[in-house]
Flavohemoprotein (Paenibacillus lautus), 401 residues
Amino acid sequence: MLSQRTIEVVKSTVPVLETHGTAITSAFYQKLFHHHPELLNIFNHANQREGKQPFALANAVYAAAAHIDRLEAIVPVVKQIGHKHRALNILPEHYPIVGETLLGAMKDVLGDAATPEIIEAWAEAYGVIADVFIGIEADMYQQAANKAGGWIGYRNFVIDRKVEESSVITSFYLVPQDGGEISDYLPGQYITLRVKPEGEAYYHNRHYSLSSAPGHPYYRITVKREDELDGKPAGIVSNWLHRHAEVGTVLEVTAPAGTFTLDTDSDLPLALISGGVGLTPMVAMLESVLLNQPERKVTFIHAAKCGSQHAMKLHIDELASKHPQLSTYVIYEQPETEDTCHQTGYIDLEFLRKTVDPKADFYFCGPVPFMRAVNGHLKSMEVPADRIHYEFFGPAGTLES
């Protein structure tokens, strides 16, 4: 238990963290990788370059400080982060390294403002917060191991099929190299791949949503090739998968994880809204609900740049032809000559008012600007927050403008 004085000191730093949080966490990662370069085998390098990881960590530190007197309030956030930690094989011995480095970054950024009392209070608080994470993650590791077909750490999978879904998106069907059973998962969850492309000094880990309903003897992931664009480097792992991984290639995989999952206990109408490759968890949810809740009304809305970049269109059309409870809509930002769609440009409020039931459960995924727009439209439609669900590809961010 933390002393009342420690709680008061940590909470007094909330305004400072609000102002300097990202600077502190940016310094943290620089120090961490300088002193422990082996941890580059775990962290996503691209998220570091783009500032996504420091921003996400700053938000997590800020939340911990603000709720230090009632840490139970941040358990949902801890579980969300814990799923990613378990998927990346983060272990208890990593936490002291992180704590020492975080305190050092606070001293570097805050200077004289980081008094001995503040550093001592944060050291004590970090120990308690770390214990919360370690305890929750220990349960997650145990659950992953105890499931039928489950495992801890990395397991070798073989690419059984490689299917081009569009000009930029390809599906990979993965089966276990040992021929054994694979663990079940919830629609919306992801698996994590660890690869080391030729010429790379470190391993690269990437989370990929499972794009088919549970129950198959394989895992399917559907990956967009991230090309160089507007100064943003090409995606190392996505390009390696598209250009070099073939049928027979062996991949290291951790067990399914993630908190963005379909509520299968709800019988409300369901609206699934996706942009680009954000359709991957939506397809898993769609297949699952059609199979397990055949009476549930579903609206599936997908936005893509154009028809040539629209993945799984024929598959969704086939599902719609077989399931009258399913309504599908397509929006193309820049349709090509032969394309047909329900709307050109972007999903707007008027379109959503015409196509979805405001009493539905809403799930959406895609680029952040797309999700920010959808979230704003749903708020304008007065959809309650508990019926709005979304997933960030990468570190959690914010949809607030």
Observations:
- The two ends are 38 Å apart (CA to CA).
- The longest helix spans residues 116-146.
